[in-house]
């Protein structure tokens, strides 16, 4: 097979019709550009919005829920084992929310190699006393360092330094909404009442803003020690253990395992946020459909130009076949034309798509909800460039396939007779 | 007896459009090496149809056909293309030059397809043939810048590029004026005399036919005299 000859004929045909060829190639360029830009931006946005939830949600959360005991005394008694026992008006036990043997559990989790990080936590509902009114809130006793590395805690501190929680005794970081209600500035002292009625003054060292209004109106943060002191508990008291795993998808299985192992309630991220994947999926789907639609339109452009070329070049095809080119040679000539248009248009599209992504990346985008974001998010995943390149070649190949087949089937006798 | 280049035996062909019309009726003929043969007959008697069958482009016939001692009937499309490329040179009424290419490149194309010689050699051979036909100064012009007679000479040069066993022509002078027609005839004549080139030419021109070695006369799809 003499490819050099095939290529030279293909390029001569394209050169003779360079204007139409260019238009067809620009069609491919445009669609690939859009495809890349759209997908980079949309998945960038996906990452950002998912991060909003994912960054702050542990993959597995271990806690003790308030609920009625599964085993009522009558069921445990051997005497009534065989009977049907009807129990009415079961109430939740006043059982402790504390996680038993928390130190041992933490130790074990840190050794588990599926686990990338562990953050202990104390959650306690409180009242803030401001003048005559009491404002409800929730105090999260956290380990600032692990909370920052695992859940980007420091990204959401808009005033003050997160580490002050550790360094300043009896300090608190208020949610932005809480702070506004309390009119508390950094350095002020707020009175906190626990559900047991204990009162304790805490010093405000900063504000916290997550972007979720309802969240910021309630949540406040102290160190674990401060929370333990506030609740009057010993220093092994924890209500929550948050776990991050190496692989997010393992969460449901691991949660179940820990639940059985530690005799505690567990919750995995998929159950906690079942809806977030839907949004990402829809956005990705839209990007792909727009990109592919554009490519198909470009494909029709290529189909048209090739059909036109073949119609115009009937004589040339006939004489080539008469002088010894076989059907597959003619077929290859037109496939080469289609693929060249796809290749050059596609490569230009990849570069332009990258250019547009860079431009989008420069556009300022500030929102109160996302303090760390200053420009539109863009995801420069090489996979999209790869997919774009493959798409452009595949669509142009199919666009060229039928015209090329038609050309290869031209009967020289019919054409030569027609003259 | 000299070597047989082309042999057809009991060729039958009908068109089915929509009723079956027989066009070639038990045609048997042969052409020897170095012969200059013309085919004549009234319009519609089947001359072109016969030539397309003999040239292997039309495969829808009954009977058998040998080219250069090789049976070509029922060969695959690819194989037939190869045979045309190597053994047959065509000159049609219309020149069929490719406007995208220069004259030289047009002549070279079947040679490049054959791929027997390198590109430089093929170019050299193409130039030789253009020189032989006294159109070498047109080599670098585009095909559409030539006159009708010049184009037909380029087509002859193209037919000669692979040293074919036989040159077939379907009224190659039909589109040309008297002077150019004579010029083309003289070229064929020279090819035949000087290079022992085998030629099979369909023509309407009695004078043209009269000057060839042998005349095959057709009527209603039959050969009545050869
Ligand atoms: N595709 C076709 N379908 C049906 N009939 C056809 C077809 N092509 C040719 N014919 C018929 O076959 C017969 C022979 O045609 P052909 O072209 O071989 O004649 P010809 O001898 O070359 O005539 P001319 O001297 O005018 O070129 C004619 O009667 C023509 O009408
Ligand atoms: Mg004819």
TrEMBL record, chain A:
Biological processes per GO annotation: lipoprotein localization to outer membrane
Keywords in alphabetical order: Cell membrane, Lipoprotein, Membrane, Transmembrane, Transmembrane helix
Primary subcellular site in the record, as a coarse category: membrane
One GO term describing the cellular component: plasma membrane protein complex
Entry's transmembrane regions: 21-42, 285-306, 333-360, 383-402
Origin superkingdom: Bacteria
Pfam families per the UniProt record, alphabetical: FtsX (PF02687), MacB_PCD (PF12704)
Domain ABC3 transporter permease C-terminal: 290-412
InterPro entries (alphabetical): ABC3_permease_C (IPR003838), Lipoprotein-release_system (IPR051447), MacB_PCD (IPR025857)
Compartment list: Cell membrane
Membrane topology: Multi-pass membrane protein
Record domain MacB-like periplasmic core: where: 21-257
Entry similarity comment: Belongs to the ABC-4 integral membrane protein family. LolC/E subfamily.
PANTHER family linked to this entry: LIPOPROTEIN-RELEASING SYSTEM TRANSMEMBRANE PROTEIN LOLE
Protein name as annotated: Lipoprotein-releasing system permease protein
From TrEMBL, chain B:
Recorded GO CC terms: membrane protein complex
Matches recorded under InterPro entries: AAA+_ATPase (IPR003593), ABC_transporter-like_ATP-bd (IPR003439), ABC_transporter-like_CS (IPR017871), MacB-like_ATP-bd (IPR017911), P-loop_NTPase (IPR027417)
Annotated TM spans: none
Record-linked Pfam families: ABC_tran (PF00005)
UniProt cross-references to Gene3D superfamilies, sorted A to Z: P-loop containing nucleotide triphosphate hydrolases
UniProt cross-references to PROSITE patterns, sorted A to Z: ABC_TRANSPORTER_1, ABC_TRANSPORTER_2
Keywords: ATP-binding, Lipoprotein, Nucleotide-binding, Translocase, Transport
Gene Ontology molecular functions: ATP binding; ATP hydrolysis activity; transmembrane transporter activity
Superkingdom classification of source: Bacteria
Domain annotation ABC transporter: ranges: 6-226
Protein family: Belongs to the ABC transporter superfamily. Macrolide exporter (TC 3.A.1.122) family.
Cross-referenced PANTHER family: ALPHA-D-RIBOSE 1-METHYLPHOSPHONATE 5-TRIPHOSPHATE SYNTHASE SUBUNIT PHNL (PTHR42798:SF7), LIPOPROTEIN-RELEASING SYSTEM ATP-BINDING PROTEIN LOLD (PTHR42798)
UniProt name for this protein: Lipoprotein-releasing system ATP-binding protein
